[in-house]
Amino acid sequence: MFNSLVSFFVSDSALPVIRSRKWAITGKQKREKIMAQIVRRGVCLVISAPSGAGKSTIAQALRSSDANLFTSISVTTRAPRPGEEEGVHYYYRDLEQFRNMAAQGELLEWAEVFGRGYGTPRAPLEAALEEGKDVVLDIDWQGYRQMKKALPGDVVGLFVLPPSLEELEARLRGRQSDSEEEIRKRMQASEAEMSHWSEFDYVLVNRNLDEAVEQARSVLEASRLATGRSSFKRTAS
Question: Kind of pairing, strands 116-121 and 107-113?
Answer without folding.
Answer: antiparallel
